[in-house]
From TrEMBL:
GO terms for biological process: fatty acid elongation. Keywords: Acyltransferase, Fatty acid biosynthesis, Fatty acid metabolism, Lipid biosynthesis, Lipid metabolism, Transferase. The active site is at C167 (for beta-ketoacyl synthase activity). Pfam families: ketoacyl-synt, Ketoacyl-synt_C. It comes from Sphaerobacter thermophilus (strain ATCC 49802 / DSM 20745 / KCCM 41009 / NCIMB 13125 / S 6022). One of its GO terms (cellular component) is cytosol. Pathway: Lipid metabolism; fatty acid biosynthesis. It catalyses: (9Z)-hexadecenoyl-[ACP] + malonyl-[ACP] + H(+) = 3-oxo-(11Z)-octadecenoyl-[ACP] + holo-[ACP] + CO2; a fatty acyl-[ACP] + malonyl-[ACP] + H(+) = a 3-oxoacyl-[ACP] + holo-[ACP] + CO2. Gene3D superfamilies: 3.40.47.10. SUPFAM superfamilies: Thiolase-like. This is 3-oxoacyl-[acyl-carrier-protein] synthase 2. Belongs to the thiolase-like superfamily. Beta-ketoacyl-ACP synthases family. It comes from the Bacteria.
């Protein structure tokens, strides 16, 4: 084992619960077939809201993963985090034991944490008084409890915390988890993100910002990344966890290696609380850092899974950032899977990392669905003609968050 090999970080398992499917195969098949996961909100009565559509996770019962009492004492974002991590561990065929527990860590991102719990308990406080607030309010609400509860359920005793950087949270979690492994502080990290934001307060807040699509009569195609008619994102829930391991550890246990996480770049715009840098400079620099840390040049990247939110500003400025990195005529194929999933906020980076790894492993680029009206300012190859067979060796996944948080992850095909 060379010193270089000891610093390498690989992906050996993945789990996902998303609006387009609750298994890897189901979600991937929906992406390629164009089956949308967005529709009318059913988690609360959205009558009177400017946006009444969302990407919801269907067919999920937390009591299938947790004891009924524990299911009652955990917020939905925690429940989704637990389920995605259990599936990722099963996919990796990794057992956490007393012997290895301290070398396995957990790092899960979220933007809003237990907002469903917070809204419910604050209503209780207002309507029934402080004596009726649940004693589990705070632990159900805290954003670190996705990571904390996963460690309790799995027994992982290594580094354990949460990343909170709005829509870049899960991507930060993956990048920082890889750094923990590279520093030698863990052999395995369970990393990703979870979000359950389909609540009256959350949707009302994003509506007030003017961030959400109001195409309530076209819920399945309301998310239109890079399209001239895009009018905002479709809020969504879900979770994804990736099992990251040092290459040495993965080899020692004979794990199947799905991909390698070779580069991580993170920057801040220092510009505006919700608007990206008007020149795309911060996002461009994050990509440049990630590519350089992977030991690559821009021409080595064969695919970009874009942040691509379907908002007027993001899509135009991310396009500009890509041109800054690759050159006007040399940007590789780009797609946004948010066209079908909606925007999972703090979990988006993990879900899209899963899709990026699958694109590398299966040799297919998922399209940007619903792109029917070209925008002159979004003039790249967005893979809008259906799934595209492509043997790509290196790919980028971008995540950009309110507050000016930019994260780029480079995933590479594992080649020994």
């Amino acid at each position: 084992m060379t010193e270089r090999d000891a610093r390498r970080v690989v992906v050996t398992g993945m789990g996902i619960l998303s609006p387009v499917g609750n298994t890897l195969d189901a979600a991937w098949e929906a992406l390629l077939a164009g089956r949308s996961g967005t529709g009318p909100i059913t988690r609360f009565d959205a009558e009177g809201f400017a946006s009444r559509i969302a990407g919801e996770v269907h067919g999920f019962d937390p009591r299938d993963r947790l004891e009924p009492k524990e299911a009652r004492r955990t917020d939905r974002f925690i429940q989704l985090a637990v389920a995605a991590t259990q599936d990722a561990l099963a996919h990796a065929e990794l057992e956490i034991t007393p012997e290895n527990a301290r070398r396995v860590g957990v790092l899960l991102g979220t933007a809003l944490g237990g907002i469903e719990t917070a809204e419910r308990e604050l209503r209780t406080l207002a309507e029934r008084g402080p004596g009726r607030v649940s004693p589990f309010f705070i632990p159900m609400f805290l954003a670190d409890m996705g990571s904390g509860y996963v460690s309790i359920v799995t027994g992982a005793k290594g580094p354990n915390f949460a990343t909170l950087s709005a829509c870049a949270s899960a991507a930060h979690a993956l990048g920082e988890a890889a750094e923990i492994i590279r520093r030698g502080e863990a052999d395995v990290m369970l990393a990703g993100g979870a979000e359950a934001p389909i609540t009256p307060g959350s949707v009302a807040g994003f509506c007030a910002l003017g961030a959400l699509s109001t195409r309530n009569d076209e819920p399945e195609s309301a998310s239109r990344p890079f399209d001239r008619t895009r009018d905002g994102f479709v809020i969504a829930e879900g979770a994804a966890t990736l099992v990251l391991e040092s290459l040495e550890h993965a080899r020692s246990r004979g794990a199947t290696i799905l991909a390698e996480l070779t580069g991580y770049g993170a920057t801040g715009d220092a510009c505006h609380i919700v608007q990206p840098d008007p020149e795309g400079a911060g996002a461009a620099e994050a990509m440049e850092i990630a590519i350089a840390r992977a030991g690559l040049a821009p021409h080595d990247i064969g695919y970009v899974n874009a942040h691509g939110t379907s908002t007027p500003l993001n899509d135009r400025l991310e396009t500009l950032a890509l041109k800054r990195v690759f050159g006007e005529e040399r940007v590789p194929p780009v797609s946004s899977t948010k066209a079908l999933t909606g925007h999972l906020l703090g979990a988006a980076g993990a879900v899209e990392a899963v899709f990026t790894v699958l694109a590398l492993a299966r040799g297919v680029l998922p399209p940007t669905w619903h792109l029917r009206h070209p925008d002159p300012e979004c003039d790249l190859d967005y893979v809008c003609d259906g799934p595209r067979n492509a043997e790509v060796r290196h790919a980028i996944s971008n995540s950009l968050g309110f507050g000016g948080h930019n994260v780029s992850l480079v995933f590479s095909r594992y080649e020994g």
